[in-house]
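Weekly sync notes, structure subgroup
Attendees: PM, AL, DS (notes)

Item 1: joint prediction request from the bench team. They want all two components modeled as one assembly rather than separately. Inputs as received:
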Amino acid sequence: MTDAAGTIEAEQSKDIRKRWLLSLPALLIILLAATGPLLIVLLYSFLAPGPYGDVQWAPSLEGWIGVFLEKDIFDETLSLASAHISIFMRSVGLSLVTTILTLLVGFPTAYFIATRPEKTRELWLFLITIPFWTNLLIRTFAILEVIRNEGLINGLLIKTGLIAKPIQMLFTDGAILTGMVYVYLPLMVLPLYASMEKLDFRLVEAGYDLYATPFRVLRKIIIPLVKPGIIAGSILVFIPALGAYVTPSILGGGKNMMLGNLIELQFGQGRNWPLGSALSITLMLIVMVALLVYVRNAGSQGSRHG
Amino acid sequence: MARAFSIRRQRGFTAIAVACFFALYLPIGVLVFYSFNAGESLASFDGISLRWFAKAFQNQQVIDASIRSLQIASVAAVVATIAATMAALATTRTEPYRGLTLKYAFINQPLMIPEIVTAVALLIFFARIKIWTGYSGLGYLIAAHTAFCIPFAYLPIRARLENMDLTLEKAAADLYATPWNAFRYVTLPLLWPGILAGFMLAFVISLDDVVITEFVKSAGQDTLPTYMLGQIRRSITPEMNAISTLFLLLSIGVVTVFFIVNRKRV
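Output from the run, pasted for the record:
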């Protein structure tokens, strides 16, 4: 090895060492106050519950068994935990429907913004960004104000004499769905817009030149071209919807729980930390699977065009 | 006369988009409107009044929670921005090196995990530490907020750095500037808009957080959002609307500044 090459190599490794030193504070903070504690959750899911919350330091699979099964209090036989399964189904179902609805509304909206003239485009984008950065709690509260029994819709309907008693809209699955579509919509529009902004309208023009109908152009040209945006938006909506806590707890009440609320219950009144930990890990695994699907799709998308 | 044919037009899209914007702003509009209600309930609007704003300003719990929110957000956003700036400098403008992908994954990790899972993890972890050390101050909330603010602060700073090449820094080095001086007088001024944007994002994210705060806080450590969550679950008066309106104003203010800062590209 020549001296010059040696110096360059030494220089490089010094640079890399400096780069590790620079990123150390961020990595340490995240390790201590975000990633590290996740490992403790994994550990706790394999311990026995303590009588007043917390855990006993004895290995146990009870937490994991409790995710899908429940023990009969009298004869100790195991059966499927129908309550938990229905909460799982509700969480996945509501999150999927939320994703589809936000896509159906978000796609035309993003397209509308992307086809505005340059000057006004930024204003429309700004209008989507404001709700995005507005506190999620406040937006959920705004929906609550509209749909609760003493709220705007019931108030108007009663005043006009159309109904005598308020319609119960709050504390239903429909209320959770409305709230989630409302709060997560900007998360769908923004990535959709990002990929539509780059759309090459000469391809659309070519489609029309070949006598395609507008619908055919949409289906065969626009949608395939903005597919990365569709996938990114769907993931960005689906993942937080699945782990939603604030929106279902305010709009769903105690009965219409989602996974987030079930997890909280185990750390509150339920006093079953191992079960809560096992449920948290399960939620994380579902999210990981969704992310993997995304990475796969995004990857194959890239190779096809690149 | 038929409308001129436009290749960009898709039937019904404009109608849906307009309805979407309307639906996005109607509930917020209702919320703000009723914060000026002179009456007690949402069922009727009894004239304009500022009484609920006055009530909110006299509510000691609201004042305490607001101050606490601002304290946590300021400290967390400053620390997160400094850490994120350093991390961005360490992960951009370089040949890929071993561990770089790991760093990306690590820094973005708080974005990938559902908030409720992180909240539960911190509840368990900090409960242990509280028993061991006996300390139960705001430090836990600040640490948790700093951690989940880092990826948000990191994004705009990294984006800005990637658009800056190393020419100017090299020129500074050629003129015998020390690495620190080159950073202080060349990199930092160019990077400043990104740092400012990152700080504001981090600040808003911290200010808005409900879930992690709700799980990590000790007794008497309500922030404004967790105080509001508690109130909304109990009984709702227009005082909540007034607080929400003020909160909304603050968020919109920060977002507007963010937009303006980000638009000025060199």
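Discussion: Chain B has a mean pLDDT of 90.
Action: AL to compare against the crosslinking data before next sync.
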